[in-house]
Structure formats: C-alpha cells, structure tokens
Amino acid sequence: METLSVPAKQATPLMQQYLSVKERYPEEILFFRLGDFYEMFYEDAMRAAPLLEVALTQRQSVPMCGIPYHAMTTYISKLIKAGISVAIAEQLEDPKKTKGMVKRDVVRVVTPGTLVEDELLPSKANNFLVSIAVLPSLKGKPSKWALAAADVSTGKLWVGEVDNDPHWNELKSHLATLSPSEILFLGEAHSILGQLNTGRAVIRLEPLLPSSQRGQKVETLIDQVTGAIHRYLERDHADVVKSLGKPQALPMVSGNTLFLDETAVRHLELVQSADPGKAGPTLISVIDQCVTPLGSRLMRWWLLHPSRDLETVRSRHNQVEDVLENSVARSELRSTLQGVADIERISVRTQAGTVSPRDLEALRHSLGRLPKVREIISSNVSLGDLATEITVPEDLERVLHQQLSDTPPAKLIDGGVIREGVSGELDDLRALRRSGKKWIAEMEAAEREKTGIGSLKVGYNDVFGYYIEVSKTNISKVPLDWIRKQTLANGERYITPALKEQEEKILGAEERIRELEARLYAELIHQVAAFGPTLAKVASGVAHLDVISALAEVAGTQGYVRPQLVASDELSIQAGWHPVIAKQMGRDRFIPNDLDLKSNENRISIITGPNMAGKSTFLRQNALIVILAQMGSFVPAESATIGLVDKIFTRIGASDRLAQGQSTFMVEMQEVATLIQNCSQQSLLILDEVGRGTSTYDGVSIAWAVIEHLSKLGPRTLFATHYFELTQLEGRLPGVFNAHATAKEWTGSDGRKQVVFLYQILPGPADRSYGIHVAEMAGVPQVCIEKAREILRHLESGDHRLSLEKGSRAGTQQLELFADHPVLAELRSLQVETLTPLEALNHLARLKGAL
User: Fold this and answer.
1) Going by C-beta distance under 8 Å and a sequence separation of 6 or more, which residues neighbour residue 148?
2) How confident is the model at residue 1 (pLDDT cuts 50, 70, 90)?
3) Global pTM?
4) What is the pLDDT of residues 372-413, one digit of tens each?
5) Are 730 and 737 contacting, i.e. CB atoms less than 8 angstroms apart?
6) How many H helices and E strands in the chain?
7) 20 to 30 A from 541, CA-CA: which of 281, 499, 532, 757?
8) Strands (E), 69-139
9) Is the pLDDT of residue 323 over 60?
10) Phi, psi of 733 (to 5 degrees)
11) CA 258, 153, 550 angle in degrees (round to 5)?
C-alpha cells in the first residue's frame, strides 16, 4: 500500500499530535479518541475500514474512518481476528476543563495474546502468548529450546526447556497443544519458523537482551523466555503483567503427562477437526459437559495433557465414581455450579484494574453460591480437598455486599455503582441531584400553569444545558424576562436566571458524583484485588469440581465405565466403542470391539480387511480410550484394563506440506520416522496404511521392515494395512498377531455379488479387501468396475499379462502390467535341454552376476 502521510510541520495541531503518537506504534491500528469517537487516519483508515465495515471518507485529503467509543470492543474483536493489534489513545484530560488541545496518548495496546475482555476471548479455551528461544544443533549435537506460555486472562504462566529435540518434534507438539495466539521468537529462534506449525498465531521477532542489561547473573534459556514475556507485557500491556502468577513447569516437559505429538492431536481430532476448514465433531465436544467456562478450560487442558501419575489418575477416577453414584446430588451440584461466573478471569481483570461493575456483581453472585456447593460435597471423602479450596473469605463477601449496589450498571460512567450509605458525601450529592431534578419537574409544571403553554417542556443537552422549549405558535405567551438561547425550526429555547442557577447545582453535583464514585470504585477494586491469590485457589477448586461432575455426567448418560489403571504394559478393552462416532450415530447402532495386548505377547496387531469396514475407527477408538482413561475420565467400553502409556504416536491418512516441498509420501515417512525414533515399550502406536504412497514392492518392503523393527522395540502397536503379505509375520516375529475387519458376501437376485460390512474386528487375517466394491459404492462407472474385476481375476490367478480392450490403439496385443527383469527374459529363452553341464554352470554364474 502506498504510504500516505504529511510532514508534521504542515499538519494541523491535532494531526501533529496524532502523527507523534502513531510514530511510536507503526504496526498497530491506532484508535485516536476524539469526543465520542475513535478516529483512524491515513494508512490505518485504509486498512481498517474494509475490515470494520465502516465508511472510508476524506477530510482535507486525509483518509479517515471512525467508530463510536462505546462500541470499541466489537470493532477490536474484528481486527484481532484478522491478526491486527490495536493501540488505544485516550483523552488524558477533561475537555470541559482544558484550554486548548486535550492531551492524548496510548493507554493500552491490544494484541491477540494479551486479551483479558470476555467479549474478545474464547470462553472455553486458554489464550496463550508464547515466547521461544532456541540453540540450533551444531556438529551433530541435539537442538535445545526453551518456551514460556502465558495466559494473561487467567494469570497462568508455564515454562519448559528441552535439550534433546533434534527435529523440533517436542517443540511442535507443545505448540499444537497450546495453540498460541501470539508468538515471540527471541534472537535466532525465527530461523526454525518454517519448520513449525504456528497456526494462526501472530509472529513477532524480539531481540535477546545484551548481557550488559541482564545483570551479573548469566541467563538460562528459561530466564530469557520468561523475561521476554514480562518485558513485552511491561512495555505495552502494563495493566495485565501484574496478574501473572509464578511459573509452573510445562506438563510434557516435566514428564508427568502422556506425550501427544502434533500429529496425534490432529489425527485423533481431540479438540478440532483434522480438516482445519471444517468444524466437525471432536472428542472435547462430546465430553465437555462443564457448566462453567473455567471448568471447560481445565477439561481441555486435562485432555491435551493426560496424566502419567497413577495416583493422580486413580484419585480423579475415585472422584468421578463418587459423583456418579449419587445422581440427585450430582444434578444439584451441576445446577448450583451453573450460576458460577468466570471467577478466574474476573479476578485477573480486578488486578489489572479493568474490571467492570457487572463483573463484580457476577463475582458476588458466584461467591454466594459456593457455600451450597460445599454443603453438597461435604460428605464426600474424595472431594474433601476441593471443599477446602472453595472456601470464600468472609471479608471479601462483606466488601462486595457493603459497597457494591444491588444492580450495578455495565459501565462506571453510567453511575449508581456504589451502594447508598458507603459515603455520606456521595449520598448528599445524590440527594442534591434528586432535589434539583425534582425542582426542574416542579418548575416545568409551574411555568405551564403560569404561562398557559400546555406543550412547554424543560429539557437538557450537553451543549446548552437546561432550557425551556416553546413551540412557535406559543411564542407570544413567553414572559419578557425569559432569555432566548436557541432558535429551532418549530420553536424557540429559553433560559431563566433561576433555571441557570439550578443547572449549576445539578451539574456540579453530577460531576462531583462521577469523580467521587470513580474514586470509591477504584478503592473497591483495590480491596478485591488483594484477594487475588485466594480467588485463584477458589477458581481452581471450582474448575476441578466442574470437570469431575461433567465427566460423571458423561459416564452416566453415555454408559462409560471406570477403567483399571495398572503399572504393567497390558492394554485390554472389552466391547469398546468410538465415543464421537457412537454419539453421532447412536450407541445402539455402533458395533463394539475388543482389544487385547499383553505384556509379553500380542504386542503388535496387524489388522487387515476391507475398506470402510471399521479398521481406522478401531485404531482411533482405542487411542481415545487410553487418553480418556489417563485424563481421569471413565471410558466407552464394558471394561478396560490399561497399563499406563507414556506416548501416543499416530500415522493415519494422507496429507502433504507442498509449501515446504514435502509430498504426501514424505510426510508419511516423516511421521513413521518420528514414532520409531521416539517410542518406548510403554508407548501406543497407531499406524494406518504405512507404505501406500509408493509402489507396491516398495510399500510392502517398508511396512515389513517397520513392523520388524517395532517388534524389537516392543511398543503396543495397532497396524492396519492392505498388504496381505504382512500377515505372514505372525509366528515369525515375537508379539506379532493378525486380526481382521469382517465382511459378508453373497450373490444378489441380479447375479451381482453384494457385500455388507460387519464392523467387527476378529482374530486372524482377512482374505480380501473388497476395494472394487467400495469403488462401485462411490459411483465409479460400471464399465470401469467390470474391467477392474476382470483384471483382478487375472492377477489373482498369477497371470500378469492382460489384453487391451478391442478398439484400443494396440488392438489385442498383450500388455504387461509388470515388466520382466532381463534375467527372467534370458532364462525363458534358454534351451536347457541342449546345454551341457558346464555350459549350464557358466550361464548360471553370468546370470547371478547380472542380478
């Protein structure tokens, strides 16, 4: 876009002020406050107008557009969704008390990773600002990185460091689970940007502080990324930095959680559809029955970071079981929690000084519901710690009840926030305002009677203050001592000395009320903010209890059972089902299946069978059952015994990264490489159609080699394939066994073979794939289907030489689908019956050398 600007010395004083502010915020859209509007000029106006869907105008050749100040949040939301940050420049002085131009400056910069307003945030997910610093691999040494992730809307801060991640796989996985809105790349970290999937995050390149500015202490990578978060917030977002709590260790870095790489998160559709352009059903959409936003955020966190600590998981299962067993108490608990607002984010806004009166009312109402919650769970042993966490300080409740009015307005400027009786001065001023307005009403009635003008009215506006309005037909009745103030099309407006005197009293009282109420409200916010750590603890307890009650609700309504978590490598599931698909199609229509992987046998299941017969569903459902179990949920099965899994890796479906020069097959092989290089005996691997992206012989060879290698490593593996050659590995490799998806075939009344898929996974190999039947179902022309069946019959009989259709270019010439090796051609031409033994040996030696 062409830059439109003017030298400051040629601009008006107002535009000089604008340009001086804009110079400090070149990348952001500057909202410049002018009266009741935020105005945008020059390039900002040209960028923003189409996004905000407002008119782009010009004044003195300067492009401009504007929005009402009271609708600011709505318009900021549109820009944030477009990845654009906003700098808000407010009037720092009261225009009524200022001679000359009002001072203006930026009071806040709103960026995608620093949002605190509910209207701008996803209520059921965290909103992360992430900083990354890396040490690239040198001379074969593994790569090292550090990451800090802050959700300023909740005050959470996580940090972690990894020094053995040569292909950045762990870093990619953290970004996949965090899904940040904004990323700060420190120093040379941006050099790996092309290797990372950063989603829709806004990318910023930040410098590392020179060592002279870091003090005497040598900063670690963690110090740098944590410091970068604080510096970034302090620079342009000082109102939210104070809300950040102490750093916690990133779960996957600490090793306390089940590791899910970015591929597994995507393939298993845990929180979003595998197709980013679609909003299909996901696991979180099925199990998130939480009734509070903070509960939904915690459930999402548990789902993406399932625990590997046996005691933690069993404790959650105990809690779910206790809530599940008492349906009446569960219903009452969920009903009570449903009225609890987002305590966590309200507390943060209180500490940042941006909390609204309605926020405080929601907080007061929520705290009032918590004693009932404690009463409901008080007799439950497993929930005792939560009852302690959600204890509300009496001082906080007293402050909110004593100082906040019963029905506070949405904004402080609307007045009526502070309760009567808090301040004698405020009460007197309000009484003065009421008496003044009563005087105005009485004056209006008195003047109507005195003048005989029935339509006379006393009104008010910001320009002229109070006035008496008379229609033109009644002007002759106006007393001589009235002073004409304004002429209208249909009448005149007047003032009187008495009206002017009363106006000064009323307006003086209202101005003083606004000032005094603002000060008292600031004091109230300060008092509530002091309870920040306590409110954080209360919010944590409420969120945990909401998740537990939601998981109990899911278990009760969808028939989930408690899994048995053990320290062995066993994975035994009886009559398990896919939680998402079964919810969509109906539990009674879904065919359940068993899985039995033992510690020393049956480690790798090679699953063959028809397309569309349920192999992929079977693979995914077992991975989802493990994830649900280790996050603390009951599972969709009749029973399940699960040895703790440390990592889940998947290789499912076809995708490419053409922008990075990676074909579908390259992506497939990278996923295979990742899981082989990073799995352990405690891992669960889900592989579907390995090797299908290349030639048959290549594909079979790769798949065979992968299975053989995995049999040595020992992870629990589900390996779906159409390569029937792989079924030979049962009995040859330790732990490898066959299973198949079943189908039933018969001949219909029209003579054609019909196939029905039974969606059952049974022991043993399949005998065929029914791919041609699937092609027919998909609508491939019948002529192609018949030809495919003919070719298949020849191939299955061992004949690789097929005739072309009549009328084709080669007529009835034989077409070889598979080219012979030259050695085979020479062998066919030998007249072995005429060869002497010596000649035969010489031929054999030469042919051997040609292979």
Assistant:
1) 130, 131, 157, 158, 159, 222, 225, 226, 228, 229, 247
2) very low
3) 0.84
4) 999 999 888 889 888 888 988 889 999 999 999 999 999 888
5) yes
6) 27, 29
7) 281
8) 86-91, 104-110, 129-135
9) yes
10) -115, 140
11) 50
